Amino acid sequence: GTRFFSMKPIGALNPARLKKFQDYYSSFKDPIIPNCHYGSHYSSPGTVLYYLARIEPFTTLSIELRGGKFGDDNHMLSDITRTWNSVLEDMNDVKELVPEMFYLPEVFTNVNSVDMGTNELAKRLGSVELPPWAENPVDFIHKHRKALESDHVSAHLHEWIDLIFGYKQRGKEAVMANNVFPYATYEGTVDIDKIADPVQRQATQDQIVNFGQTPSQLLIVPHIQRRPLADILQLQTIFRNPSEVRSYLLPNPDQCNVPASAVHVSNDCIVVVDANVPAAHVAVHHWQPNTPDGLETPFLFHHGKNAINSSGGAIRRIFKGPTSAEDYHFPRAIAFAASAIQPSSTVAVTCDKEVITGGHADNSVKLISSDGARTIETASGHIAPVTCLALSPDNNYFVTGSRDTTVILWRIHQMSSSHWKNAPEPPPSPTTPSTPLANSISSGSSPIRTLETSSKRRIEGPMHVLRGHLGEVTCCSVSSDLGLVASSSHTSGALLHSLRTGRLIRKLDVGEAHLICLSSQGIVLIWNESEKRLSTFTVIMESLCLPRSCHLSPGVLVALRFLGMASLL
């Protein structure tokens, strides 16, 4: 925490040691090699392995680097206090922290039970020794992250940016800030192509790769200071100020297709899918947020209309809309629903304002337009009705769970060309899925032809058929960032599968899960409706903390989602 509170180079935290570094800079004389304050770097592959040696793939890389086994605790994080003292006192230790120290508690625990050797007192190495103020790894991460996101750090964050990426990275300002590192670590200071001697060229490349690299310099002027939170909140409407949120009821509820099974909010409209999934009414309500009117409502709103009346009217204020209900007969999707399907579990709205629905009697999933509720595309893969589906936050993938006990991963191609370029490609599953779509694909003449045919479809798949459940799949979630698919059934509990390979990774120690959600920070959130219990897990460890009971007012929790950096729910 001190590093972020001071906003100085690591080598400048201890005044006595800094004086030695300054003397070294002044006394260093070489006709070719430029002066520097430090003989090592704050970020290198060795630094990463030091902090992350307890989790894969860094465990394997650490063992390979040290000749097949761990050496001693000097090469890995074993004690937080000892490491802190080292970066304060040791002339050869100026390493920074890695991001995982602020969000991944597994870096402190030997979760894979690896033989990590012994320390200098012949004590077996295992989990990291934490400081007295941390009760456990989760508590350490919580407090460490809280310090990082504190108002004080936010007010001085620009100073750290100046050192690492900005105008204090090089030149006279770097010298004054005691921020000069070996010249070979800076981008553009060494031209490998001009080194004729192959031995010297290889040695230089090894030094650049292993010694550390300074990031590209992005700014040559001081970075602006972040404005205080209190000032920002005064400029925002209720939509960005949670402490001021309150409800605004529409005067004509019959002009909205509620109750809703799914809602998607964009900058200019709100897509609402009612509770009759898959034969749902779909409406696009237009609005202008952050635009207060005379009645103190902080937005303008215009009820959605069907295709016949879609051209009517300018945007009306929320309390000045037309009162006639006959204009608000929203288009309805043509579908035949399977029995006993939970509507909110089988629908999702994409960033293109299109609707994906399951729960069809023909076991398919359908892509529906929001304007007119027309069926754009139908995809088949299950041999029983789809009971749940979930869309990845980046809108590149979605997963479906079914009464046939399987979970299928699909890829969805968005209208935006950027989605076609940026979506990661999982390789084909090791085994061909035994599904109707897979069987039809396998009869094709060549893989190339199959790929060309698939690329023309908005819904591509099945990419993988995920197995392991023994009963109907009740909920699912997918994260492209984590490369994981989470799912649950009443008989098999919660399972995690790899998005890339389709293989089962692990089973979470939890009973029933009626809702499941993955965050980009590696947190699994599980809701048990019968026990009114909300449990949190990490994707590597067991329970993140003791499950906490969450007692709600009468009703059923039907949606679960992380917001932002998994700090809001």
From TrEMBL:
The keyword Transmembrane helix does not apply. Residues 419-454 are annotated as: Disordered. Pfam families: Beach (PF02138), WD40 (PF00400). Keywords: WD repeat. Transmembrane segments: none annotated. Residues 1-226 form the BEACH domain. Residues 424-433 have a biased composition (Pro residues). This is BEACH domain-containing protein.
